[in-house]
Design goal:
mainly alpha; about 400 residues; about 5% strand; Receptor-associated Protein
Length: about 400
């Protein structure tokens, strides 16, 4: 029998990676389920798991808006009573991208061959996320596939909108800071040295603040490459260090302690965790398995470690809110809302309400931060330009008055 490699989640939400001899991937999935595990991936060991350099630059056939659209359309067709293979055949004619059409054709052929939709999606190796596949699998078990897909499409749309909001909020300040930086570099490295040469030729006594500005301008002119290279080297070093797990853990924990960045980051990650966990629970995924999946969507390793520890506590019979509170990093309001959900028996719904609340707070905080940041940068630029103008022109004005 062929050898298959598999990945699965155990009852504690831990990822299991191993090999198994079986007649087909369906048998691997069945065996893992009999052992109490949640299958994530099953593929022939001969297919390998490496990622080629070329694949790193290839766009996925389903990502972003296209994945949301595919999920919504499939949910609509299934809700209208269309069989799954017929729905996939209809969707096969919609994409303009050949790679997307081939992907849908592979999924349809696998479904026609008797494979569940989750298994057909899993065979696409990385095209669909683990969260996506597990939600589809839970929908198959619950017999409400179109409702599951509609919830999944809503989750994907909200997640995409939140990522887009974050990116849009950071793009303008980043561009503004770069433009301001180069403007100051030009002012200090080219304009100011021109006045330094002029005053040197006139051989006049200059005020101390003028001498300081002129000296700074000469330094910028002679060492501009250091001023540009140092931030670039620092960013490169931070990027390299962030790949070190120990440094990343400390850095992420340090970020959460900062007064301005920490609360905003905690709210953003809380919204992401609550949205993912609530959506998984709504679709019938067990809490421990849902915690294992949700932990992987967090970008902050310190919060991810808190969720991992909370999963261990939940396994031992403790409540989710009390377990998450031990790390003292998640917002108190979120923990209180989760506690209410546990006590009322509607944890999934309360998690989704928590996500709505913190997504709104995150958006408002970003808007306020952006509204304050842009004027601050503008005022700094105006102040620097004003100081430079006063420093270089006042001596020239005094000299003109003395001559007159």
């Amino acid at each position: 029998m062929p050898l298959y490699r598999y990945k699965a989640l155990n009852a504690r939400g831990e990822v299991l990676d191993g090999q198994m001899e079986a007649a087909n991937d369906g048998e691997v999935v069945a065996r893992l389920q009999e052992q109490g595990h949640l299958p994530v991936e099953a593929r022939l060991a001969s297919e390998g798991g490496g990622t080629s350099l070329r694949s790193l630059f290839q766009a996925k056939p389903f990502a972003g808006d296209r994945l949301v659209q595919f999920t919504q359309q499939l949910a609509t067709l299934l809700g209208a009573g269309q069989p799954l293979d017929r729905s996939l055949t209809i969707l096969l004619e919609l994409p303009e991208d050949d790679k997307a059409r081939r992907t849908i054709a592979d999924i349809r052929d696998a479904v026609r061959g008797g494979a569940p939709l989750s298994t057909a999606l899993e065979r696409q190796h990385g095209t669909f996320s683990r969260l996506y596949i597990n939600m589809v699998r839970a929908g198959e078990a619950g017999g409400s596939m179109h409702e599951t897909l509609q919830r999944l499409a809503d989750y994907l749309e909200r997640s995409r909108a939140m990522r887009g909001r974050v990116v849009n909020a950071m793009v303008y300040p980043a561009i503004l800071m770069v433009v301001v930086g180069f403007a100051l570099l030009f002012l200090m490295g080219y304009v100011v040295p021109q006045f330094a040469l002029m005053y040197e030729s006139l051989d006049v006594t200059l005020p101390w603040f003028t001498r300081g500005v002129l000296a700074l301008g000469l330094f910028v002119r002679d060492w501009w490459f250091v001023l540009i290279g140092t931030p670039a080297a620092l960013l490169w070093w931070l990027d390299r260090k962030r790949r070190d797990p120990v440094f990343r853990d400390r850095f992420d924990a340090w970020l959460l302690q900062k007064k301005l960045v920490g609360p905003l980051l905690a709210k953003m990650e809380t919204a992401r965790l609550a949205r993912t966990l609530g959506t998984l629970l709504k679709n019938g995924v067990p809490l421990l398995a849902a915690l294992g999946i949700s932990r992987n969507v967090l970008g902050n390793r310190a919060l991810s470690a808190d969720v991992e520890q909370a999963a261990e506590d939940v396994k031992n019979g403790h409540g989710l809110s009390a377990s998450l509170a031990k790390g003292k990093r998640f917002p108190r309001l979120a923990l209180q809302m989760i506690q209410v959900g546990e006590e009322s028996g509607a944890l999934d719904g309360m998690l989704l309400k928590t996500a709505d609340t913190f997504e709104l707070e995150t958006a408002q905080a970003m808007d306020r931060m952006l509204a304050a940041l842009v004027p601050v940068i503008t005022l700094v630029l105006a102040a620097v330009v004003g100081i430079v103008i006063i420093a270089v022109l006042v001596p020239l004005y005094d000299l003109t008055n003395s001559i007159g």
